[in-house]
UniProtKB/TrEMBL annotation, chain A:
PANTHER family: LIPOPOLYSACCHARIDE ASSEMBLY PROTEIN B, TPR REPEAT-CONTAINING PROTEIN PA4667. Residues 1-22 form the signal peptide. This is Tetratricopeptide repeat protein. It comes from Hymenobacter cyanobacteriorum. It comes from the Bacteria.
Automatic annotation (TrEMBL), chain B:
It holds the Pfam family Peptidase_M23. One of its GO terms (molecular function) is urea transmembrane transporter activity. Its main location: membrane. InterPro entries: Ammonium/urea_transptr, Dup_hybrid_motif, M23ase_b-sheet_dom, Urea_transporter. This is Urea transporter.
Length: 202, 828
């Protein structure tokens, strides 16, 4: 045991100047990557990160984003996934992962990702709303309604969640509730076509 | 306070249980608790139910229904529903108050209107009231509909802050398997609760109340989900309210509440599911135009349809029997029906007794191979008197007066009116028959519309009555002769549905008689009976013989053709019309229950398996069965002590004391009659009630309600069936309802299987303790045991002492404890 500690201490003392240099290189690489991204030259933005890539959380997150912009969704998802594993409590990489998954059409993985967010942050509006949308698209109106209800309770005057919840309620036969929500959606956006159509259907 | 509780809070609590057709107070408590999972709904429901109970009491409506919660559960539903539609406030409170009144009025009115047709009002008053309030009341009060259930997290936060929200979400987010969650939510939604946890409580409560209803709820749910799956519907898109309040409740109602649970009733319940699906779709489409929800209307329409068609059947049975007396528990309904079907099959029937005095031998029974009772004329009996050698005459037997039976009085078997008299035909010489006047001198008596008896081969000019005379049971209507197709004096007795001489026969049992064993019928008559008594054309058609059972099914049409006959039993028919209409089986299927009846008739143990020829078996008292050929029968001589002690007329009372504490407090048991003229013993100390019945020949208990640790319950088990004739060595057997079984695991397992298979049998046996002791003391010992899979456990052993025409003592051993009771008359 002592031997291990000793070796570690020696390594750290010896590595200190090297670490300072690596820090400077990483800052420069990120800086040039941002400049390239601003010009929408994503290949150029990826290159410096790749050059200094050691697999840190920050590098994975950055690469995930840049590969997503470069439309290399598989690589993007892979880097985001690494970031998710590195910071399992973080919501940031999970929300990032959603984007390439959506582009790849991997709805099941999107759903599990949203669910993993909600385990950590049950109030997360975005996760709640989009989970509801996924269930709505699957015609699973009962669970969809439960997710939309959370959003509507947090943001009672939000157009999208009101309209989505109204549609879920309508399909569950809760007509009175659906009517109330469509009416509310019309208050938010007077004359809104979707809400008017919904009211007509009732 | 206790009185107030009983008269107000108990009906209020039962209102909750009534949502699942129950009176189980524990289940009711669970439902009350669950209703408060949505606090506003809970308050509104409770207030509406309380108002309805109070209104029903003040309004003087049927007390029995009020106390059962039958007038208030619609108000409860209305309160629950309104609070989930509209936000809390004065406007909602006003709606609930008005709605409770309207729901009560509609419950009474619809209950009366449909009740007259033998149908329940179900939740129709709730649907109508809620529509009325939604269409009329809410717009007047400017109530915005449909918002309250959406903002449940905000409501929870307002009520209990972040902790309540966290708790609500923790419960709400429990990771139930999706289908289980849907089932639970469906049950919860009957109480307008949108939570699987609430549904879990309801499910557990339902299981506590009834294993059969619970099983049906799962089956109906599975069927509905299966149908939806076939239809391509995704599980998440079920409307939980419709699953619960429509499909599940309809299946429970149709399969176990209003119909006696059976394999067929389960099929009937599952058949109701697709019909409810259709009704729901159609009603929703139609009502959408009016902006109204279908609520539980689809369930009501399906259940009423499925029950009404059963009521309109000409031939009842087939596993679908309408519940005769609603006991608000599928198990109790089933067990009571199963036992009563055997025990009380004859209740309400006209009791026929032997049409003679003394001991006679049945020389020819029902289509049992006898020479003359064939085909449609098969259900007839011949009687003659035989001596110890089996001979029917003394001396040479060449003259009529040599025959023991000749000129013996023939009696009316029951009260009635003389319908037909033929008495001008001369008696035949021995061995000769009159082929032209087959029946000879005959009296036909009418006992009830469609119920006649015919007594034939009477002696010429021996009939003292004339057409139109009223006769009582036991009146002499003639003497035994040998007129008509009769080679020697004997009596021909048959029951028939039409008044004509020689009508085809009706299988109909005798209410009671003592059978003294069998003699070989052919031996008795020495082969003299070769001349045939039945109309000659019956011989030409062999099918008559092979068709013998057909008269049984014919008989059923007789019952449905003559419903007025049933009304002759007023106490019974007015009480339970459905029971009567559903159980003509006791007439149409006489042969089957005759054999059933043997399970409770007195048996002489160990003697029954001996040879039939001149079997020296002990006498046994038989009830509602038919003598068989060779059986020697006589009217029973009843024990005066027993008859007097167990007559128990209304107003009769007994003072009961424990022998261990003769100076201690006594209980008073008093006999009353209920609205249906049924008698019961009521213990004033424990309020327990014991229903009983019987006739001249037997006393039996029919039902017990109340505390099962009471003394009255011990008496119920001890005197479950007491024959009033004492015959040496006879043991009386009977079957108790399964509801007396007190081992929970065993009872619950049996409950689940009960509609299909019964493996637990509670049995009752009673015998005289010893030869009659000095004086007029009769001691009877009875034993109740529960048998299953070859095991047997004694539930109770008892000794009943009767002295000087009174119940004097009862000693009971139950669960290792022994109780000894003394009885006295309060005024003595």
């Amino acid at each position: 045991m002592d031997l291990v500690k000793l070796t570690l201490a020696v390594a750290l003392v010896g590595a200190a100047p090297a670490a300072a240099q690596a820090q400077a290189e990483q800052s420069a690489a990120f800086s040039s990557s941002y400049s390239a991204e601003a010009k929408a030259d994503y290949a150029e933005a990826i290159a410096p990160i790749r050059a200094i890539y050691t697999g840190t959380y920050e590098q994975n997150l950055r690469l995930g984003w840049l590969y997503f912009l470069a439309k290399n969704y598989t690589a993007a998802a892979a880097h985001y996934q690494k970031a998710v594993e590195q910071r399992p409590y973080a919501i940031e990489p999970k929300l990032g992962l959603i984007k390439p998954l959506n582009a790849l059409g991997q709805i099941d993985r999107m759903l599990t990702t949203y669910e993993s967010i909600l385990k950590i942050d049950p109030q997360n509006t975005q996760a709640n709303y989009w989970t509801g949308v996924i269930f709505l698209n699957r015609k699973a109106y009962a669970p969809a309604a439960r997710y939309f209800e959370r959003v509507v309770n947090l943001y009672p005057f939000d157009y999208d969640s009101n309209l989505s919840l109204a549609w879920a309620y309508f399909n569950l036969g809760k007509k009175a509730e659906a009517r109330a929500l469509y009416t509310k959606a019309l208050l938010i956006r007077p004359g809104d076509a979707a809400a008017t159509a919904g009211l007509k259907r009732l | 306070m206790p009185t107030f509780f009983v008269s107000f809070f108990r009906p209020l609590l039962r209102t909750y249980a009534m949502l699942f057709f129950s009176q189980h107070l524990g289940f009711a408590g669970v439902l009350l608790l669950v209703s408060f999972a949505h606090p506003t709904a809970g308050v509104a429901g409770l207030a509406a139910a309380a108002l309805a109970v109070a209104g029903a009491r003040l309004g003087g409506f049927n007390r029995e229904w009020t106390d059962a919660g039958a007038y208030s559960f619609n108000a409860l539903l209305m309160g629950l529903a309104l609070a989930t539609f509209y936000p809390p406030g004065w406007a909602l409170a006003g709606l609930v108050v008005v709605g409770a009144g309207v729901a009560l009025l509609l419950s009474v009115a619809l209950g009366g209107w449909l009740g007259g047709r033998g149908l329940p009002a179900l939740s129709l008053p709730f649907v109508a009231t809620t529509w009325l309030l939604m269409l009329g009341g809410a717009p007047l009060l400017h109530l915005p509909a449909g918002e309250t259930s959406v903002y449940w997290l905000n409501d929870a936060y307002a009520l209990g802050g972040p902790r309540l929200v966290a708790a609500a979400r923790w419960v709400g987010d429990w990771p139930w398997p999706p289908l289980l969650a849907t089932y639970l939510r469906a049950l919860g939604s009957v109480l307008f609760q949108d939570s699987a946890a609430a549904g879990l409580l309801v499910a557990l409560g339902l299981l506590w109340h009834s294993r059969i209803a619970f099983t049906l709820s799962v089956l109906a749910f599975a069927t509905a989900v299966g149908l939806a799956w076939l239809n391509g519907t995704v599980p998440g898109s079920f409307s939980e309210y419709n699953l619960g309040a429509n499909y599940i409740i309809a299946a429970i109602a149709v399969g176990s509440v209003f119909v006696i649970p059976s394999g067929t009733s389960y099929g009937w319940a599952l058949a109701s599911v697709p019909v409810t699906v259709l009704a729901l779709a159609a009603l929703t489409a139609a009502l959408d135009k009016l902006g109204l929800p279908a609520l539980s209307l689809p369930y009501c329409t399906t259940a009423l349809l499925f029950l009404y068609v059963l009521l309109l059947r000409q031939r009842a049975g087939g596993g679908l029997v309408l519940t005769p007396i609603q006991r608000y528990s599928p198990e109790r309904n089933l067990y009571a029906y199963a036992t009563d079907r055997v025990r009380l099959a004859h209740q309400g029937a006209v009791a026929l007794t032997l049409p003679f005095l003394g001991t006679w031998t049945c020389t020819q029974g029902y289509a049992d191979g006898g020479p003359t009772h064939l085909g449609d004329w098969g259900a007839a009996l011949d009687f003659a008197i035989a001596d110890a050698d089996g001979r029917t005459y003394q001396g040479l037997g060449l003259s009529l007066s040599d025959y023991y039976a000749y000129n013996k009085p023939v009696l009316a078997p029951a009260d009635g009116v003389v319908e037909e008299v033929i008495q001008h035909l001369e008696d035949n010489a021995i061995g000769e028959v009159n082929l032209t006047q087959n029946w000879g001198n005959t009296v036909v008596l009418r006992h009830a519309p469609g119920l006649f008896t015919q007594l034939s081969h009477l002696r010429a000019h021996s009939v003292p009555v004339k057409v139109g005379d009223h006769v009582r049971r036991g009146d002499i209507v003639g003497t035994c002769g040998s007129s008509g197709r009769s080679p020697e004096p004997h009596l021909h007795f048959q029951v028939q549905a039409t008044p004509y001489v020689g009508s085809r026969t009706l299988a109909y049992p005798l209410a009671y008689f003592v059978a003294e064993g069998r003699k070989d019928a052919s031996n008795v008559l020495n082969g003299l009976f070769n001349a045939l008594e039945a109309p000659s054309y019956s011989l030409e058609d062999d099918s008559y013989v092979s068709d013998a059972p057909s008269y049984a099914s014919d008989a059923s049409s007789y019952v449905s053709d003559a419903p007025s006959y049933v009304s002759d039993a007023p106490s019974y028919a007015s009480d339970t019309p459905s029971y009567v209409s559903d159980t003509p089986s006791y007439i149409s299927k006489t042969p089957s229950y005759v054999s059933d009846a043997s399970s409770y008739v007195s048996k002489t143990s160990a003697k029954t398996s001996g040879p039939s020829f001149m079997q020296p078996s002990l006498a046994q008292l038989k009830h509602f069965t038919v003598p068989v050929a060779g059986e020697t029968v006589r009217p029973p001589a009843f024990s005066r002590t027993l008859s007097q002690a167990l007559r128990l007329p209304p107003g009769y009372a007994l003072e009961v004391r424990s022998a261990a504490a003769p100076e201690g407090p006594s209980q008073r048991w008093e006999v009353f009659t209920d609205a249906y003229n049924l008698r019961y013993l009521r213990c004033q100390a424990t309020s327990a009630v014991l229903y009983f019945g019987g006739d001249e020949s037997v006393f039996y208990c029919t039902a017990f309600y109340g505390d099962e640790s009471s003394w009255l319950y011990a008496f119920y088990l001890a005197a479950y069936r007491v024959p009033l004739a004492l015959l040496p060595g006879q043991t009386t057997h009977d079957e108790l309802p399964l509801s007396i079984v007190r081992q929970p695991a065993l009872a619950w397992a049996q409950d689940v299987l009960a509609p299909f298979y019964r493996f637990v049998r509670p049995t009752f046996a009673l015998a005289e303790a010893a030869a009659p002791t000095a004086g007029r003391t009769v001691v009877l010992r009875s034993r109740v045991a529960v048998a299953w899979f070859g095991r047997e456990r004694e539930t109770q052993a008892a000794e009943l002492t009767f002295r000087d025409g009174m119940l004097a003592g009862l000693r009971v051993r139950r669960q290792g404890q022994e109780v000894s009771l003394h009885f006295s008359q309060p005024n003595a």
